C-alpha cells in the first residue's frame, strides 16, 4: 500500500503545475467540449449521405426488400437530424452554464438552502447534495421536451413508440425518485470516503465504487427493473426447453428465465443476462419472442452465453476499474488547486477550500477529449468481444458435441437480420462514425465474419473426414 501511495505522490508532483501555472481552465473546457461536439457533428455529416443510398449492401440484398430498406434509411436519416440538433443544443446550453458561472451560482444556492435549515458551510456534504439537486433540476428542464419529441414524434413516426403520455410522465417521475433514493446516499457516501481517507482516498474509494457496482447488479433487476417493466417466467414451450437445455449443457448457472414486456414502451427487441457469478438470470424481450423463431432466439442466447463463457463482463469490469483508478489518481492535483475553481467564477473563500464535488465535476470536464478517445478504445474492445461471442455460437456444436447445433451460425445470422429489419437498423455505416459510436460491429461485418467462421469450421470438418 505504501508503494502505491508513493507512486501516487510522484504523479501529483508531476501535476503540480495545476496549482501554480496561470491557466485559463474555463477556456480550455469550452474549447475541449466544443471540439468534441463539433467532431461528433462532423461524424454525423459523414454518415448522413449514406442514408440516401437506394439499395442495401450486397451481402444483405437478398434479405431486405425495397420497402424495409427505405424505412430503415428514413429512420436513420431522422435520427441523425435529431442527434445533430440535440447535440449542438446541449453543448450550447452547457457552454452557457459555464460562461455565466452557473456552477458557482448553484453552489451558492445550495449553501443558502441548507442555511435556511440552520446548517453552515462547514456541512460540505449537505451543501454538495443541495448543489447536485439544483444542477439536476436545471439540466433536466431542457431535456424533457427533447425526450418527449423523440418518443412521441420521432419514434411514433416510424412505428416504434408504445409509450402513452401517462406512462412517459410516470417513468420520468419514477426515474427521478430512484435517482434521489439511490443517488443522494451514494453521493453522500462517496464524499464521506473522500473526507475520511484524506489524500489516501484512491484505494478506499475504488473499493467503495466496486462494492456499489456489485450491489447495483443485485438490486437493479430485483428492485428497480420491476418498477418499469414486468418480468414474468418464460412460458413452457419449445423456447424454454431449448434455453434450459443450452444452459445446462454449458453449465451456465441459470436461476430464472424471464420474459419482459418490452412492447409496453417500444417494439425494439433484445435479450440479455445478469446476476452474480453463481446465480444468473436470462431476460428475453416479448418482441423478440414474437418476431423470431425459437431456434433463432436460441442462437441469440448462444451468442449472449458466449459473453459469459469468455468472461467478457468480468474483463470489462476490470478495464473499468483501471479507468476509474486513472481518473482518481490524477484528481488530487485539481482538488488542491484553488485557482482551478477561481477560473470557473467561484469566490476566493470557496476556492481556498475547494468542495470535492465541485472540483470533481470540473475535473471531469477537463477530461472530455480524453474520455472521447477512451470511448473509441472501449468500443474497439467491445466489438472484439462481440465477434468472439459470435464465433462461440458458431463453434458451440463442437464444444458440446451436439450435431443438432451445427447450423447455429446460420440461425444467428437469420436472427440478426430479423432484428435489424424489425428495428430498422442502419445498414450503411461510415467506418469512423461506427468506431466512435458503436460498441457492436455492423450487421454486414458480423454476417461476413459468421460466414467465415462457418466456412472454416466446415473446412476443418471435411479435412478430418
UniProtKB/TrEMBL annotation:
Domain CAAX prenyl protease 1 N-terminal, first and last residues per copy: 47-230
Topology within the bilayer: Multi-pass membrane protein
TM region(s), chain numbering: 125-154, 175-195, 201-223, 316-337, 357-381
Keywords (A to Z) from UniProt: Endoplasmic reticulum, Hydrolase, Membrane, Metal-binding, Metalloprotease, Protease, Transmembrane, Transmembrane helix, Zinc
Location of this chain's protein in the cell: Endoplasmic reticulum membrane
Domain Peptidase M48: 233-452
Reactions catalysed, as given in the entry: Hydrolyzes the peptide bond -P2-(S-farnesyl or geranylgeranyl)C-P1'-P2'-P3'-COOH where P1' and P2' are amino acids with aliphatic side chains and P3' is any C-terminal residue
Cofactor detail note: Binds 1 zinc ion per subunit.
Gene3D superfamilies the UniProt entry points to: Metalloproteases ('zincins'), catalytic domain
Residues annotated to bind Zn(2+): 303, 307, 386
Active site per the UniProt annotation: 304, 390 (proton donor)
Molecular function, one GO term: metal ion binding
UniProt EC number: 3.4.24.84
Cofactor: Zn(2+)
A family per Pfam: Peptidase_M48_N
Enzyme class label: hydrolase
Broad class of where this protein is predominantly found: endoplasmic reticulum
Any GO CC annotation of this UniProt entry: endoplasmic reticulum membrane
Domain of life: Eukaryota
GO biological process terms held by the UniProt record: CAAX-box protein processing
Family of the protein in this entry: Belongs to the peptidase M48A family.
Protein's job: Proteolytically removes the C-terminal three residues of farnesylated proteins.
Name listed for the protein in its UniProt record: CAAX prenyl protease
Species lineage: Eukaryota, Fungi, Dikarya, Basidiomycota, Agaricomycotina
Amino acid at each position: 500500500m505504501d508503494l502505491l501511495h508513493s507512486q501516487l505522490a510522484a504523479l501529483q508532483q508531476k501535476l503540480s503545475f495545476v496549482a501554480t501555472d496561470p491557466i485559463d481552465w474555463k477556456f480550455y473546457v469550452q474549447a475541449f467540449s466544443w471540439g468534441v461536439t463539433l467532431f461528433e457533428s462532423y461524424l454525423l455529416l459523414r454518415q448522413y449521405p449514406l442514408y440516401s443510398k437506394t439499395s442495401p449492401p450486397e451481402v444483405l440484398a437478398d434479405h431486405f426488400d425495397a420497402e424495409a430498406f427505405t424505412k430503415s434509411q428514413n429512420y436513420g436519416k431522422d435520427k441523425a437530424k435529431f442527434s445533430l440538433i440535440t447535440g449542438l443544443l446541449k453543448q450550447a446550453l452547457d457552454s452557457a452554464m459555464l460562461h455565466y458561472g452557473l456552477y458557482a451560482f448553484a453552489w451558492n444556492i445550495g449553501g443558502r438552502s441548507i442555511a435556511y435549515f440552520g446548517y453552515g458551510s462547514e456541512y460540505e456534504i449537505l451543501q454538495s447534495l443541495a448543489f447536485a439537486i439544483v444542477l439536476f433540476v436545471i439540466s433536466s428542464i431542457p431535456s424533457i421536451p427533447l425526450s418527449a419529441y423523440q418518443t412521441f414524434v420521432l419514434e411514433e413516426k416510424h412505428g416504434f413508440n408504445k409509450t402513452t403520455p401517462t406512462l412517459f410522465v410516470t417513468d420520468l417521475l419514477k426515474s427521478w425518485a430512484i435517482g434521489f433514493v439511490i443517488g443522494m446516499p451514494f453521493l453522500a457516501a462517496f464524499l464521506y470516503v473522500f473526507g475520511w481517507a484524506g489524500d489516501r482516498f484512491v484505494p478506499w474509494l475504488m473499493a467503495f465504487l466496486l462494492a456499489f457496482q456489485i450491489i447495483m447488479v443485485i438490486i437493479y433487476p430485483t428492485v428497480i427493473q420491476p418498477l418499469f417493466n414486468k418480468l414474468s417466467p418464460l412460458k413452457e414451450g419449445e423456447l424454454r426447453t431449448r434455453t434450459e437445455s443450452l444452459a445446462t449443457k454449458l453449465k451456465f448457472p441459470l436461476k430464472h428465465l424471464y420474459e419482459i414486456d418490452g412492447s409496453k414502451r417500444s417494439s425494439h427487441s433484445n435479450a440479455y443476462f445478469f446476476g452474480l457469478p453463481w446465480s444468473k438470470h436470462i431476460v428475453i424481450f416479448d418482441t423478440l419472442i414474437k418476431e423470431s423463431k425459437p431456434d433463432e432466439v436460441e442462437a441469440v442466447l448462444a451468442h449472449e452465453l458466449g459473453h459469459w463463457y469468455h468472461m467478457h463482463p468480468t474483463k470489462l469490469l476490470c478495464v473499468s476499474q483501471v479507468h476509474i483508478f486513472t481518473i482518481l489518481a490524477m484528481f488530487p492535483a485539481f482538488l488542491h488547486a484553488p485557482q482551478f475553481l477561481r477560473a470557473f467564477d467561484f469566490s476566493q473563500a470557496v476556492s481556498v477550500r475547494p468542495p470535492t464535488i465541485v472540483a470533481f465535476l470540473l475535473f471531469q470536464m477537463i477530461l472530455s477529449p480524453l474520455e472521447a478517445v477512451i470511448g473509441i478504445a472501449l468500443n474497439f474492445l467491445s466489438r472484439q468481444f462481440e465477434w468472439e461471442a459470435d464465433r462461440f455460437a458458431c463453434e458451440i456444436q463442437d464444444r458440446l458435441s451436439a450435431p443438432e447445433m451445427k447450423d447455429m451460425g446460420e440461425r444467428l445470422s437469420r436472427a440478426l437480420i430479423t432484428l435489424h429489419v424489425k428495428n430498422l437498423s442502419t445498414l450503411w455505416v461510415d467506418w469512423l462514425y461506427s468506431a466512435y459510436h458503436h460498441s457492436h460491429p455492423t450487421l454486414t461485418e458480423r454476417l461476413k465474419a459468421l460466414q467465415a467462421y462457418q466456412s472454416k469450421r466446415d473446412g476443418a470438418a471435411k479435412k478430418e473426414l
